[in-house]
Amino acid sequence: MSLLALQNANVLDPSGTRFLPDHHVLIEDGRTIAIGPGAAPPWTAQWRRHDLAGTYLLPGLIDSHFHLVSRSASQVDDSLVGFGQVEGVVNAAERLAAGVTAVRDCGCRHRGIFALQAAIESGLVRGPRTFAAGTNPTGPKAPPHWRNVVATGPESLRAAVRQQVADGADWVKLILSHAEDPTDWAAVTSYLTAEEISAAVDEAQSLGVPIGCHCEGADVAELAVLAGMHALEHAPLITDRVAELMAQRGVVYVPTVWAFSSDAGLDLATLPAARRDALRHWQDEHRASVARAHAAGVTIAAGSDAEGSLPARDVLVSELLALRDCGLSTVDLLAAATRVGAALIGHGEDLGVLRSGALADLIAVRENPLADITALRDPTLVVARGQVVRDGSGDELPESARASVVATNRWIG
């Protein structure tokens, strides 16, 4: 039996709008069993006690668009799988240390993601709860180096969806379209027909698994919503009509604004002036799309879609800051990184919220994130599956190990 008592914390109310001062939280065998004011009731020596005086306790963060195993290539070989898995182990540990206790993994070029997921669940690898999509069904026009499985025709798409679920996928992600020119997001190539999209959505729903899509282009976004898609990933062009349809149908928007921004690593200085101005225009349109969707009442989830094999530990906070620039309040931001993400992975009742009966994935931070969302950058305490995995005592990946993996990434294809 595992017993944990967290004392004297400011605890986030289930509404997500305020912190309750001087509260205790009792955790037994991975679940929160009691929350209340003042000191915890008397306990035996079996209870492990943590005094969190002055800190702010809230649910663990959920990154709704991440790739733990980020390597991709046209051909899957031993090198791709092996080094990808090593990076995945490091990525998983870093996400957890950052307070990200669950990730919605949006695609892997091979089935190695399921092995990593199993290793995390067994405790062999330290990492966040992982809800994986596997490879991504798409059409033959899609780039071959992406995390794809190619299908042609409605029945082939149905079979591809069934295969992902049989492989162990928790959900399915389609690749619908892409803007080939990074400075012209209006000109997109569609990879799947309306009939193929509808068939895939219908198959996923019949199997009882959520389905989302990589989506670029306003017309494709509308097509996806009308087909019954559960979530749109990226979707940098959302019209008023699409926003209204998304709100009506409960479609979740995972815009990954940061990943499309210059802050994600794109060097604008290398572009000619005209292309630089064009890119800035589309980045503005992306932010305007998020603002439009938010105003229409669309549910927005925070996903970093971090570029590179070993992104910065606090990359999800970078996405929250980008969403803040689109008009979301700190209450909206906390929801986007907790309970909205939990609902998106089908765990709205027991993840992403701090209440009795919920799974005990929690973080503590020094300052009030409702006053300043950057307080989430450096948790002083991380609890995952009811166990303390970081307590501010320097439990971090040694810099030498991180540098070694980064160096490996530079010379492996």
Question: Short summary of the structure?
Answer:
The chain is an alpha/beta fold.
As a whole number of angstroms, the C-alpha radius of gyration is 21 Å
Q: What's the SSE pattern?
A: EEEEEEHEHEEEHEEEHEHEHEHHHHEEEH
Mean pLDDT across residues: 90
Range of helix content:
25-40%
Structural class: alpha/beta
Number of strands: 19
Q: How much β-strand is present in the residues? A: 15-25%
Gross morphology: globular
Tally of helical runs:
11
In whole angstroms, the N-to-C terminal distance is 46 Å
The biggest beta sheet, please? 8 strands, mixed
Which stretches are low in confidence, meaning pLDDT under 50 for 5 or more residues running? 397-413
Write up what this structure looks like.
There is one protein chain. With about 425 residues, the chain is α/β, with parallel strands linked by helices. It is about 35% helix and about 20% strand. The chain has 11 helices and 19 strands. The strands form 5 sheets. Strands 1, 2, 3, 4, 5, 17, 18 and 19 form an 8-stranded mixed beta sheet that branches. Strand 12 (about 175-180) and strand 13 form a beta hairpin. Helix 1 (about 80-95) packs antiparallel against helix 11 (about 400-410). The longest helix has 24 residues, at about 275-295. The termini are far apart. Mean pLDDT is about 90; it is low at about 395-413.
Features:
413 residues; eight-stranded mixed β-sheet; four-stranded parallel β-sheet; 11 helices; disordered C terminus
